[in-house]
Every structure is written in structure tokens, then in C-alpha cells.
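Deliverable D2.4 — example input (C-alpha cells):
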């Protein structure tokens, strides 16, 4: 049956009389409403809320189909009655090249008005190089003359590095350089 209220009268007839019985059936008609259809994380926001409301009747059953590998939605599916559901949408920037990113995520539901809604998502990734060294300790012990120290950029942008002052008895093959996105040098 179609969503909404359906009314009919059933007539009952017998040898001694008749009666008319009204019958009403309500079929839920959930309607999805979102607090926003566009989320802009700019370059500084990590998490934004999105409210999913049901302006109709019955239970609204919804689910996100994530199409962006840098986006996370929690919870990604649910049921909303008369109280709105708050969803946390967050972005992951680490390891991504600097620039602007845009995309869409789709929310599918049993809504009678719009069963599928696309939400536009945008963010910026700035250059944020991150120094990484391995191993964290160098132990020459009594017999070693040479060890390798790996210097890396664990994020994006250009990491300019240089070896600071140490003991006079330590020598380095290179004392400085630049590393790009997720680069390493030994």
C-alpha cells in the first residue's frame, strides 16, 4: 500500500440486519531531511556534524555509501524516528598531497520524498611536512663503526632537514637535504 492513511467501510449484511464498520490503516511515510547538503572542512576542520531528521511518519532507515577514501562517517547507517540522529563526518589529511579536494557521498533511505540524497564534501590540505627518523636510538656498542639513520617525511610538502651538532666523534655522510611527499633518505 502507498504511504499515508487509508480508510474504507466494510458492510456486514445478515438476515437480521446490517452494519457498516469503518476500517483505517496507516502506512508509515518517512521523509529524510538533512541539516546540510554541503560540508566544507576548509583547511582547519577535522570533524563536522550532520543531522538526519525524519519529518514524516514511521522509521527512516538510512545508509551512507562512502565513495571518498579520505572521509569517514560514524555511524554510517541507522534508523531515525521522531528524534534526529547526529552523524559525525571526519576527514583524514595525513599523507595526502597539498591541494583542494571535493567529492560527494550518497545517503540512501526508505524516504518517500527523496530516497537518495548526495552531500557535497570539500576540504583543503596544506603543506605540513613531518620529520620521521628510524631507528630512534643508535647504539654502536663495542664493535660497530657504522650505522644507518633513516630520515623521512611522514606527511606532505617539502621537508628541509639538517643534522644538528652532536659529539665530535660522530660523522655523517650527509648533513642536510630536502624530502618530498613520504620521501626517505639514509
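Example output (designed residues):
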Amino acid at each position: 500500500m502507498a504511504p499515508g492513511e487509508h480508510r474504507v467501510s466494510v458492510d456486514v449484511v445478515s438476515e437480521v440486519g446490517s452494519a457498516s464498520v469503518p476500517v483505517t490503516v496507516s502506512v508509515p511515510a518517512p521523509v529524510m531531511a538533512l541539516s546540510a547538503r554541503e560540508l566544507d572542512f576548509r583547511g582547519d576542520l577535522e570533524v563536522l556534524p550532520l543531522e538526519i531528521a525524519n519529518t514524516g511518519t514511521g522509521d527512516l532507515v538510512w545508509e551512507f555509501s562512502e565513495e571518498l577514501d579520505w572521509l569517514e562517517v560514524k555511524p554510517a547507517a541507522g534508523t531515525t524516528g521522531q528524534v534526529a540522529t547526529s552523524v559525525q563526518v571526519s576527514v583524514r589529511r595525513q599523507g595526502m598531497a597539498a591541494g583542494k579536494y571535493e567529492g560527494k557521498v550518497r545517503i540512501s533511505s526508505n524516504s518517500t520524498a527523496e530516497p537518495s540524497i548526495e552531500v557535497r564534501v570539500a576540504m583543503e590540505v596544506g603543506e605540513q611536512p613531518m620529520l620521521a627518523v628510524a631507528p630512534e636510538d643508535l647504539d654502536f656498542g663495542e664493535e660497530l663503526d657504522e650505522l644507518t639513520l633513516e630520515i623521512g617525511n611522514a606527511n606532505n610538502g617539502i621537508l628541509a632537514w639538517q643534522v644538528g651538532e652532536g659529539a665530535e666523534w660522530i660523522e655523517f655522510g650527509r648533513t642536510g637535504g630536502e624530502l618530498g611527499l613520504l620521501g626517505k633518505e639514509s
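The first strand starts at residue 4 and ends at 14.
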